[in-house]
Amino acid sequence: MASSISILIVNPNSSEVMTAMMKETISSLAIPNTHFVYFTAPPSSPASIDSEEDAARSADVCWPSLKPLVPYYDGILVACYSQHPLVAELGHFAAETASGGARRPYALGIFEASITMALNLLAPFPGCRFGIMTTGQAWEEPLSGAVRGFLAGNWDGRLEQRFAGVGSTGLSARELHDVDERVVKERIRVSTGRFLSSEAGEQNVGVVCLGCAGMTGFDEAVRLGCQDAYGEKMGSKVKVVDAVKAGVMMLLGLVRGGF
Q: Minimum mean pLDDT among 2-6, 10-14, 171-175: which range?
């Protein structure tokens, strides 16, 4: 029997509801020989991370509590869809404190995991692109910049050939779970359809990433929006990447592969 792997899932906002939603999603994967522990930020962290400033503040609040936990896990997943400061902080700290030849814990963010997964899914289809559906409009520009920062060094000015941009629902991360679920699903569906029908879509978006940890479990609403924009046959072929699922599976691959 394979040895058990221990993974820490970090929710850097203070919403216990969002942590519970992620736990439900991860439990549905039924991954054997893996122990998941869930960390929710202290109450002084934002309840909803709706800007880069919120992300930075949440990192400052979480770091003192997270730091002593690092040596006890094989992998740590930061479940905030941004270039969250905790990913680099955890990764650097794990590397600096690993003793001797001991393998250090892996640190990964759901943003980076989802983009990597999207590109893997698009690899056989050179004419297709990926897009991101996120929460508030304020995230559209920062996430577009984050994608460029994550990929542009390897794309020689040709990023637009693979990246269609970012669409938004107009809801905050907190509202995804505070507002009636039927209203949220309809907003996500309509917003996705509008994004793919815009000039950004050009009928060649093959993957849509859920651009918020709080959107986990809403993949069907995005899929319906794809069908609204592209028709049922073509829209059903668009892959929807749940960033939380992508992060978990990629982190497990790193741990089990020992890279």
A: 2-6
Q: What percent of the chain has pLDDT over 70?
A: 92
Residue 50: closest CA among 185, 143, 182: 143
Q: What is the CA radius of gyration of the chain?
A: 18
Q: Which residues, at least 6 apart from 100, have a Cβ–Cβ distance to it below 8 Å?
A: none
| Residue located via tokens 């779970």 | 177
Q: What angle do CA 89, 90, 93 make, to 5 degrees?
A: 85
Q: What are phi and psi of 37, to 5 degrees?
A: -120, 140
Entry pTM: 0.92
Mean pLDDT over 149-158 rounds to 68
Residues in a beta bridge with 210: 133
Sign of the alpha-carbon dihedral angle for 81, 82, 84, 87: positive
Return d(Cα 82, Cα 211) in angstroms, integer.
8
Give the chain's mean pLDDT: 90
* Cα(163)–Cα(201) distance, integer angstroms: 10
Check: CB of residue 90 under 8 Å from CB of residue 107: yes
